[in-house]
Fold these 4 entries.
Entry 1:
Amino acid sequence: MKQVLILAFLASAALAQSNPAAQAARQWRQQHERAIIDEFIALLAIPDVTRDRDNIERNADAIARMLERRGVAARLVTVPGSNPVVFGEIRTPGASRTIVFYAHYDGQPLDPKEWATPPFEPVLRDKPFQDGGKPIPLPAAGQPFDPEWRLYARGSGDDKAPIAAMLTALDAIRAAGIKTRSNIKFAFEGEEEGGSPNLEKILDANRELFAGDLWLMCDGPVYQTGQQQIVFGARGDTGLDITLYGPRYELHSGHYGNWALNPAMMLAQLLASMKNAQGRVTIDHFYDGITPLTPLEKRAIAQAPEIDPGLMREFWLGSTEGAPARLNELVTLPALNVRGMASSRIGNQASNVIPATATASLDIRLVPGMDARQTTSRVVDHIRKQGFFVVDKEPDADLRRSHPKVAFVVVRGGDNAVRTPMDLPIAQETIRVVESARGPVVKLPNMGGSLPLTSIVRPLGTHVIVVPIANHDDNQHSFNENLRLQNLWDGIELMAALLTM
């Protein structure tokens, strides 16, 4: 895989010279690396967990000032109870269209104890931490940064890097005297990692402000080979939590084993009933109504570089679910995932007991043609068919005594999947511009993860294309999140090209 990455980098480096804005961005970056990183580190140092309202507002204010320092009119847009969306606008005389650049500045929750260094004290390392990377000082102004160095902090890869890349690209094209051709808007969200509960409300209440012919969503990683990718959609997301019940309190497993129902065992059996050994979901009607891929989308998947063997080695996997189908095929299908389970204690803390409860948290990835509410309803129907009496609030003693098996199910809200047709003229133009900056790109119908595309498309009636810049191994959503510096440098060139398309 390393050889493929090197070849892809060399190809993209050569072809980037064909885009004047990308070339200008490279020259600007090479002259200002320390200033770029200093500004980025200052932004990363502001805690950004979605529910931390005070610090979220500090982030929003800081980003608005970053825009204003570049002469971009900025404002914070909210609805009651929401985190701000930072809005910026560049009006281009004579422009006939508007392009909106999206990123989010909030980050996932975290436990600082899991991090090698504090998550909001950015640290530069000479290579990935898991490969023995050591902290190193920042080079002096005018000294180059090794592009393989990693910057560690929450939000470094997901998703403050695109904000830094966009604003640096803006500096670069202005210094080179290159003009924008479209009206440009920026929309930086502060709730994406919380499920974007207010994004659609904000956009719906401010449709004219956020209107655009195309939204470019700058979130997520590049292709696993290191090549730039363009993604034309994302899977939707929903989920539910299931709690099963045994005795009122934990019982001695010797005295009451084989007699009192064990909720952990029941939960394992219930979850096993939902998927077969090949990873196919066995819930009735789960796959009904799915919109098939177009011939163009199928061709794009077939043309994408093979990555499965390399990823299996990297992730220490001896087999994969759904084989022989490849990863790029499988992420165009819906998925049901157990994202966590809990019941009593394990390891040295384990007791010889029958647990009182067992809980599992499920997430479901949706594809076009599926509806979030209908899908979770089918899962609940499946639970009933396994003999459980399903309730939507904590059951009391009388209810638990009245039914052999009780399941308390909490359904989370969700978004449906969205795909932009790959053959639209604006989609084809975006491909050409990205290739002029980054060389041959990988084009995929959708990514496996979920993004708030529906919350944008539904109120605005626009199209969304995803152009990510982070490295695929950035520990997104986990501890020791990081950004490979070359990905930031490449992202600056990419954003310069897109800003001038």
Entry 2:
Amino acid sequence: MNLSLSHTTKVVRGEITLPSSKSISNRALIIKALSGLPFEIENLSTANDTQILQQLLADKNRTTFDVGHAGTAMRFLTAYLAIQQGEFILTGSERMQQRPIRILVDSLRTIGADITYLKNEGFPPLKIIGKTLSGGEITIDGSISSQYISALMMIAPYIKNGLKINFEGQVASKPYLDMTAEMMKSPTLTLPEGEGIFSHLGGDKRGGFVVEPDWSAASYWYSMVALAKDAEITLLGLKKKSLQGDSVVAEIFEKFGVKTDFIENGIRLTKSSDFGLRTSDFQLNFTNCPDLAQTVAVTSAALNVPSKLTGLSTLRIKETDRIAALQIELTRLGFNVEVDGDDLIVNRHSGKSQQLNHWSSISVHTYDDHRMAMAFAPLSLLSPITIENPDVVVKSYPNFWKDLKNVGFEMK
């Protein structure tokens, strides 16, 4: 199934209720399951990933856990099941069975976990014989995935002798570790500034959780405001003080001419005449906010802003190789995009008309990746565009197309 997307007036105005944060929701579910406490989780995400994790955790007699495409669930459940009494199979979709898990498995084995690969070494599916772990000290490459480290952090209070993690290299996506630490609310937990040590001994303490709206989802609305002829969008519930590192999107898109005003019930986005990148290049390291990279890359190309996006190494092991996918799809649309190692370079193009003339005959491949679909959708404010497999957005933002329709986008 394909979705043809366009907008007649190019003027976008409306009030949007964003989905709840998937990152916060998934952590809250694991923390609650580990604690055994009946605290409340308010405003839990309706994203497919979160719903899958919730369903898997709800069945106390389950021995086979199939996460489908849910990467966070795979990482978190690997650690979670390692300390549950019993024998379990943890598996996922074909793509999930191509996404590496070795670093997390090796770390868990170091502290006593019994985990076996059922097919290919280093990849799911896994056979896990859960038991009490001895704990101790491990060393992990912090640059690969913050989800590995968050998974270890959340089980740390339930390990016999506590846990000490030594990090090699720069810690990627550190705001996600800060999120995990804040949600665990432990006075004995410490985090490194860059390279360093995470330690945890003793119990963790918390009450309930109220899940924030998702700043990652907000990024697509920032892109729409940047590309629209005129725009005023209110995103309900977002606050300046947030657990989410992706709240930096407000600062990033200020450079693309999007003004953010924090109001009583959320934020208001408007177009600004101060577009600071009209005559200069844009460069940003996405180590701490990798989920924003696709949105920024597409916006840069559409606005003809030469850009260099770095800190993208973790994008190679997401739902797809997002670096390669961005280059392929932007190039197919006529933009000049290069890849240098793990860096994405968007070059200035000669003019809009050449690109737009090609779009009517090209459909954007989404690679079973929700963020590819949503990052490319704002281009329809420049010219009609076709998105393949639009239902993939259910992974994180089930009402995305409905929300676009409510602000004037036309779909068929």
Entry 3:
Amino acid sequence: MLKQILNENNISVDDCVSLIFTTTKDITKAYPAKFAREIGFVNCSLMCVQEMYVENSLEMCIRVMVTINKEENDFKAKHIYLKNAQKLRPDLIN
């Protein structure tokens, strides 16, 4: 997911200031930040928190909010929704 966010938004790991991950309560084996560090996110702040529980909500879901520092005044983020997460924002699906 992180690699796709970087690629589709034409940003690099060095552009990233911080990442905040949220996970649903059923993700219990590892922090998403661990894998972010492994692919190069070593000079930015990473935080993991649990998503609030809502009945009948999407299971096994990881979300990430990326804060970047870019000089471009006209930067427009492309939001990435993979697999079942596309149900969260059908208005953004092409």
Entry 4:
Amino acid sequence: MRVFVDASLIIYLNVVLPEKDARRIEEFWLKLLVESELYTNVLVLDEAIYVSKKKYGVPVEDTLELIDKAILPYVTILPLGLEEYVRAEKYMVKYGLKPSDALHLATMDNNGIQLIATEDKDFDNTHVKRIWVT
């Protein structure tokens, strides 16, 4: 299955969590790695770097290292361009999504991806299926 990886998953892989939560996130990530083709875009990486630093105090260098070692070898980075912007405009209005979420949804649609691995419940009100840690 083809899955779009959102920033929340990368962030949780990057920050210190209680042991039980960390184990659940790691198990979810490993299951995705084994069972799925994974995709994301550079905006997700930007969000993961920014939120990790701003909200959790993770040094930028640490996040970059995680992305370089644990994300880029396994996740295809899809382009963002005018086609994604045009489609995202419609999703901001239709679903009330934040601009970045609308761009993620447009990226998914333009690449035939119907599943998103995210904690963000805003995607529950769209035409794609959200999957998350259970």
